């Protein structure tokens, strides 16, 4: 699928797929959406000593970068193991021109951004001390065949239901649930009623939260 780089309203960039008429991130702001949904309402609500994160999907790598940026602000007395799935990795031109490290004051993030993208697929790598990244190139529905530790935090960041409705139906959510620890948190930008009902059927405690700029609501769901 052909992609082009676009600038969102907060000055951060995203990718746009012409064939689907779909952005990788909110046009209101890629960075502010990632920080609101996955950091403020995800990572910062998880207090485990060792945090296992599952991301669907890797996309541009922005969610990994904002997670590391937040990790660097802490005392780093815990470990993060970050597993991320992606069927269609972006290319070198896109990586260079998205240049997400430019959005942050921390000069360390330029090298970290490059390492995130240069790291081999299917191979766990310690990006910085205490932060381990494992990129897995696969279809999301192959998740059931992937051996993972119990997941404490899920970044559910699939393309929207308008273009990929099967990613927002029970079979995939059930696979994700089976990988999660009790009291694990799933956070997503979606607030669809059908998604809330599916998660409730799968024994999650579902809470509607204030959405990122341009979106009224989003979902947090804790596995019971």
Automatic annotation (TrEMBL):
Question: Per its record, what are the GO molecular function terms?
Answer: oxidoreductase activity, acting on the CH-NH group of donors; tRNA (5-methylaminomethyl-2-thiouridylate)(34)-methyltransferase activity
Domain MnmC-like methyltransferase stretches? 142-223
InterPro entries given in the database record? MnmC-like_methylTransf, SAM-dependent_MTases_sf, tRNA_MNMC2
Q: Which NCBIfam families match?
A: tRNA_MNMC2
Q: Which PANTHER family match?
A: MNMC-LIKE METHYLTRANSFERASE DOMAIN-CONTAINING PROTEIN, SLL0983 PROTEIN
Provide the protein name.
Peptidase
Species for this entry? Chryseobacterium formosense
